[in-house]
Amino acid sequence: MCEPAKEAEKPAATATAKAPKVSLKTSKGVIVLELNAEKAPVTVENFLGYVKKKHFDGTVFHRVIGDFMIQGGGFAVEGKDLVEKDVGKGIVNEGKNGLKNLRGTIAMARTSDPNSATAQFFINVKDNAMLDYPSGGGYAVFGKVIEGMDVVDKIKAVETATAPLTMKHPTTGEKLTMPSEDVPVEKVVILSATAE
Q1: Could you tell me if 31 and 156 are in contact, meaning their C-beta atoms sit under 8 angstroms apart?
Q2: Cα-flanking dihedrals φ and ψ of residue 27, to 5°?
Q3: With 50 as the cut, is the pLDDT of residue 3 above it?
């Protein structure tokens, strides 16, 4: 009778082991993410690819709206400026995967083109049902914060202002500096992102 019970435990342990985790060491503390590769396989693979390339190291949370979300993964500090980093092609939007933009979830940032997400992501600081499918194709949730929600709350509380961001034109690659709202006055830096 004991043997079948042991066998039943093994698949559960394997299923838990399959969920990749990423640790974001920030200037405000550590945030640990658990990614949902089952429901968002393309998005998780894409995100882990950027983690492995060290893309996120030295980037900042460049957009913080205290009653909405914190966004990062796209801009690094160059001198006094925030400059957009090079990224790969946009990925297919997995916004229909059934995962909801609830407080503590991580989702992909994108343009109005549903399939334009690359490296930028956001962490919801409250339930944001208006981002769920079918709204604009949905914003693809691909994981959740399992440690460090207190750090997310510290980041959402930082003072913000209008500040210049240097972006790359999506077609020409030309650098354009434009004023952007909701930029933290004190730079909140992702010092490192590591897969566990």
Answers
A1: no
A2: -70, -5
A3: no
